[in-house]
Amino acid sequence: MGMAVLIRHGESQWNLENRFTGWVDVPLSPRGEEEAKKAGAKLKGYRFDVAFVSALKRAQDTLAIVLRELNQTDIPTYQDQALNERHYGDLQGLNKAETAQKFGEQQVKIWRRSFDIKPPGGESLKDTAERVLPYYEANIKPHIVAGRSVIIAAHGNSLRALVMHLDRLTPEQVLELNIPTGAPLLYEFDSAGVPLAHRYL
């Protein structure tokens, strides 16, 4: 039976500063490194065959810390920008409180949480899903169908897009979906790659 663990990177320097990060390649904060270590501790006893990670340093560092905690740094690892955080366009680098003052709190909430409304110059969650899901189907799911154990280190919105697909959530349901940092989310699959159960560790 195939298995996948999804992990959202630990707190980054810009999460700490409450800024929109998107594709800007900011490092983990010390707390984020700690969160990644704790995630590794929660995964003790699990053995992974293959890892997938975005092209951004905060996800790569999270994965590296987790695999180091598990003494599994030698597993094949594939990196792709298809798993990157959604691109926040003109909001990238702006403090979230300032953005709310500038555009209005309601508008910012719509950009952050709605399914198909893009922030100026950026991607909607729908756009993010349109790169995450084909990559998942072509590159990750075959490992799961083959009965392997996979770990995916990515971002709040790229993982929301994937969970929406795996759990068959509606655009309304995904609005309320929030994936915590550094909390491993374990999925078990049947031999066709259909999710049977999932839980946070």
From TrEMBL:
SMART domains for this protein: PGAM (SM00855)
GO molecular function: phosphoglycerate mutase activity
Species the sequence originates in: Nitrospira tepida
Keyword annotations: Gluconeogenesis, Glycolysis, Isomerase
Active site per UniProt: 9 (tele-phosphohistidine intermediate), 85 (proton donor/acceptor)
Protein name: 2,3-bisphosphoglycerate-dependent phosphoglycerate mutase
Residues given in the record as substrate binding sites: 8-15, 21-22, 58, 85-88, 96, 112-113, 156-157
Record-listed E.C. numbers: 5.4.2.11
